């Protein structure tokens, strides 16, 4: 044993620099090895807490599905499920259209068929008797169709009329005396310079024109 320790000084004297390099390399290697083990351990712990995104129901905003309750003078009143990018006219079509008991002129003036639907919306289509019994007062009150009640009208100018120049067939059909065929005839005879062109071009009869002239614009 004494011989071993006595041989070290000459050894380090001859190979001192090489020995230091080897020693430093071993230290670096050990630190790298323990660092790798620590990294693997951390990744293993993190994987214990990881989880996949649950499948099934997604938030309503990502589903883009709306439930709309439509009642009143409609052929099939019910709660309907539709994409949220649909409009009021789409709900009415889904519900079988407006019934014959509806006050169509009132609806034509006060309902915006182009408006987008929203989730949990309530739509009430008024019956003629509801208008006749002044539940909804014409020229004094305007129906808030999102709920079966009446609200104060802001201005007479805010009541929209149906344009014979740009309205769709479904919008024209809510006019009194205008069915599907008459609506299509109005569309086929466009353009119009005034509502009187309906008579000049013999699109509809004078009797029908008298019924709808206060509800239309060119």
Report on this model:
By secondary structure, the chain is an alpha/beta fold. It folds into 2 domains: 60-158, no CATH class; 162-217, DNA polymerase, domain 1 (Orthogonal Bundle). Helices cover 44% and strands 14% of the residues. The chain contains 9 helices and 7 strands; from the N terminus they run H-H-E-E-H-H-E-H-E-E-E-H-H-H-H-E. It has helices at residues 2-49, 60-63, 88-94, 104-110, 128-132, 169-172, 180-188, 197-200, 206-212; strands at 65-72, 78-83, 121-125, 141-144, 149-152, 162-163, 216-217. A 3-stranded mixed beta sheet has the order 2-1-3. A two-stranded antiparallel ribbon has the order 4-5. It is elongated and about 130 Å long. The model is unreliable at 46-62 and 150-159 (pLDDT under 50).
Report the structural category: alpha/beta
Gap from first CA to last CA: 118 Å
Order of helices and strands: HHEEHHEHEEEHHHHE
Mean pLDDT figure: 76
Helix content: 40-55%
Portion of residues in beta strands equals: 5-15%
Strand order of the largest sheet: 2-1-3
| Tally of discrete structural domains | 2
The rough form would be described as elongated
Uncertain ranges: 46-62, 150-159
Q: What's the story with the biggest beta sheet? A: 3 strands, mixed
For the secondary structure, the number of strands is 7
Write the layout of secondary structure elements.
Layout: H1 2-49, H2 60-63, E1 65-72, E2 78-83, H3 88-94, H4 104-110, E3 121-125, H5 128-132, E4 141-144, E5 149-152, E6 162-163, H6 169-172, H7 180-188, H8 197-200, H9 206-212, E7 216-217
Parallel strand pairs: 1-3, 6-7
Antiparallel strand pairs: 1-2, 4-5
Keywords: Membrane, Transmembrane, Transmembrane helix
InterPro entries: Soluble_ligand-bd
Protein name: Soluble ligand binding domain-containing protein
């Amino acid at each position: 044993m004494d011989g071993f320790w006595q041989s070290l000084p000459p050894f380090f004297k001859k190979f001192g620099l090489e020995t230091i390099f080897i020693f430093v390399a071993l230290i670096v290697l050990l630190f790298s090895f323990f660092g790798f083990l620590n990294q693997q351990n951390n990744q293993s712990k993190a994987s214990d807490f990881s989880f996949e995104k649950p499948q099934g129901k997604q938030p309503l905003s990502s589903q883009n599905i709306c439930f709309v309750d439509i009642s009143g003078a409609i052929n099939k009143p019910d709660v309907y499920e539709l994409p949220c990018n649909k409009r009021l006219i789409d709900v009415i079509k889904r519900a079988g259209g407006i019934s014959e008991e509806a006050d169509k002129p009132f609806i034509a003036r006060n309902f915006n068929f182009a408006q987008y639907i929203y989730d949990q919306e309530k739509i009430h289509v008024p019956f003629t008797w509801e208008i006749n019994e002044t539940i909804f007062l014409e020229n004094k009150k305007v129906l808030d169709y999102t709920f079966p009640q009446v609200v104060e009208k802001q201005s007479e100018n805010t009541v929209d009329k149906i344009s014979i120049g740009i309205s769709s067939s479904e919008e024209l059909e809510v006019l009194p005396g205008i069915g599907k065929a008459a609506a299509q005839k109005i569309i086929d005879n466009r353009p119009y310079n005034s509502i009187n062109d309906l008579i000049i071009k013999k699109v509809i009869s004078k009797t029908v024109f008298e019924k709808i002239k206060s509800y239309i614009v060119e």
